[in-house]
Amino acid sequence: MDNETTTRRIPMALCAAALGLAAGMAHAQRTPLLVYTALETDSMKAYKTAFEKANPDIEIKWVRDSTGIITAKLMAEKANPQADVVAGVAASSLALLDQEGMLQPYQPKGFEALTRTYSDSKNPPAWVGMDVWAAAICFNTVEAKKRGLPKPETWKDLAKPIYKGAIVMPHPASSGTGFLDVSAWLQMWGEQDGWKYMDALHENIAQYQHSGSKPCKAAGTGEFPIGISFEFRAYQVVKSGAPVELVFPKEGLGWDIEATAIMKTTKKPEQAKRLADWFASKEANQITSNWWAVVAYPGVAQKLKGIPDNYEQLLVKNDLNWAAKNRERILAEWGKRYEGKSEAK
Q1: Where would one find the signal peptide in this protein (predicted)?
Q2: Which among 250, 287, 276, 254 is positioned nearest to 131, based on CA atoms?
């Protein structure tokens, strides 16, 4: 090797080493943001990839569980909160955190473009909506035919004796979907008639499962003919080719909002606000529209197979603040009456 070649290669090697060091330092300088979530695992990767591409200096660190578990975890940590941001968690749960003084109100960039009724009514809002999710019934036509079960059309149909042992639904203390069902029935019919309905429904329940998705998955595989679930999972099960028809009961659908909020105690407020900004963006809403029939950004939602055109009109009148204030009392009463059929944890 001649001296000229050696001379050329030394600077090149130094340059490559410097670039590698710079890249390593840039990666090391990424700020981790701890985000508690109840998002479906199907969607978490898409959100993380898109956000980090737009914000390469921030890394999302998810802590994921069902809504009820995440809510209980946040309340247990009230004296020393760990999360920086809560995203994809029920607005009724975030309203509870707000009532406890745990959230930092913030109006994200572009907020004025969102449907106002799907976020906290205060200015600035304590939480900002991502999408609406609502109850749906997954009905396995093959298994139902074997058992001679008619397709239900209403919630009250499910209380008929013919469905005894044929129904699974989410546990309201573990699942946000289970809680929105219970809350809706109590608000639709009043507490006396709501509990009376649930007493009758309980006679037909095979199991209360600790996930909003699991009952529809169980209906899809034929484990049970009927699963009370929500439209995201119902749509996915139908899309997979399972012999399932979706039922949207005529009385109306319980619903809640997946939302984003910043914890008051975060030590990374700038990065937390950037994540809140991104979740309010059209880009994030376009990702959300792959799975949800109603999203916060108008005009972005897509037509999803099996979801009726009047879906949004089926949503019942729902007081999320009432649900938050009465959550503990409702769950205590529900547990006294029905805990015996709960799935083992």
Answers
A1: 1-28
A2: 287
What is the distance between the alpha carbons of residues 80 and 92, in angstroms, rounded to a whole number? 22
Residues linked to residue 128 through DSSP beta bridges, in sequence order: 260
pLDDT of 28 reads 59
Residue closest to 38 by CA, chosen among 71, 2, 79? 71
Question: Do the bridges between strand 58-64 and strand 31-37 make them parallel or antiparallel, or are there none, so unpaired?
Answer: parallel
The answer, yes or no, to whether residue 212 has pLDDT greater than 90, is: yes
pTM here is 0.85
Task: Return the bridge partners of 315, or none.
Answer: 253
- Averaged pLDDT for residues 32-60: 96
Tell which residue, 138, 148, 160, has the closest CA to residue 209.
Answer: 138
Amino acid making up residue 74:
L
**pLDDT score for 283:** 98
- Tokens for 118? 């799907």
Hey, what are 11's tokens?
A: 């600077």
**Cα gap 214→218, rounded to integer Å:** 6
Whether pLDDT at 302 is above 80: yes
Give the Cα separation of 128 and 112 in Å (integer).
Answer: 11
Cβ atoms within 10 Å of 335's Cβ, excluding its own? 14
Query: Do residues 151 and 282 make contact, with C-beta atoms less than 8 angstroms apart?
Result: no
Distance CA 241, CA 261 (A): 36
Three-state DSSP class for residue 231: helix
Rounded-to-integer distance, Cα 9 and Cα 204, Å: 78
